Amino acid sequence: MSKKLLVTGGAGFIGSNFIHHVLEQRPEDSIVNLDLLTYSGNLDNLSDVESDPRYRFVHGSICDRGLVTELVSSTDCVVHFAAESHVDRSIDDASAFIQTNVLGTQVLLDAVKACGGRRMLHVSTDEVYGSLPLDQPEVKFSEHFSLSPNSPYAASKASSDLLVRAFRQTFGLDVVTTRCSNNFGPYQFPEKVIPCFVTRLAQGMNVPLYGDGKNVRDWIHVIDHCEAILLVLEQGRAGEVYNVGGDNERSNLELTHAILDLMDLPKQRIELVADRLGHDRRYAISGTKMKEEFGWEPRRSAWPEALRQTVDWYLNNQSWWQRILARANADRQDARG
User: Distance (Å, rounded) from C-alpha 161 to C-alpha 108?
Assistant: First the structure.
């Protein structure tokens, strides 16, 4: 049976990859993509499907109550990606994160409640759990961990997670939440670490590495993540949280060395910089629940091959990220007046 999906934030990195994945894997389904096209939203990510009759783009905000309610009422289910997501930006100014991640999620939940009978999948992050110690590698985030966010970004996502839970408990909404580790792959905005490092190196610049480089992240390929989201959307139990990990822990220093090796560049291209404020030491996800309930495990995230493919994508698509960097520079100049 065909479904019509409302995808919020579908012009971003994960959202655009999810739209591609659904159109490829579910040819009977159709998608409405709601995106405000802020700095990280990019319709170039979806240029190859813009004429597909199964796809429609709507320019707008998830905080626009009338528009959101209209779109929810005309679709069968909602996949909610729209979020401010860059930790450094949240440290500089948290207001946009509260507006989009918290209030925007509330508007969306209100619309789902008003329209009734629709499933909503809320896409969250492992950062809501806080930080794990480096010296206890056996400890990983499970869905039963308490929420202990340490950055304004993570706090805003934890707040949206709690709203989703509350709307389930209070109103009985058919909602599910996924919490994922660090994604990598094509179409990621160049301020994120992997495309940032590859594009800087391609331009002859050094790469800035926070602190001692020992902070550890679990890396998952974006298509593995999209596969898991679609699975939870279709089969997940209402009210449940599902952690989605790549089983691929690497320190930031290991990541940087791997990129340099793939680009045949020396370690001297690393420039150590002051550590990020409140920098979480380690994230690691237990994928036990996904495996036990669905038999799902990541299939595309193993390094070095998955990282090699990602680095090659940015090197082979320089016009894509050059346009983004040019727009970002123009916006900065306009802001200076």
Answer: 13
Residues marked active site are found at 126-127, 153
Residue 45: φ, ψ to 5°: -60, -20
Amino acid type, 219: W
Looking at residue 294, which CATH number applies to its domain? 3.40.50.720
SS3 221: strand
Has residue 235 been placed in a domain?
yes
Write down the pTM of the prediction: 0.95
What is the CA angle 123-82-298, rounded to 5?
A: 35
Judge whether 57 and 47 are in contact, CB under 8 Å.
no
- Number of folded domains that form the chain: 1
* pLDDT above 90 (res 211): yes
For 147-193, how does the pLDDT look when each residue is reduced to its tens digit (9 = 90+)? 999 999 999 999 999 999 999 999 999 999 999 999 999 999 998 99
Residue 242, domain extent: 4-185+221-246+282-301
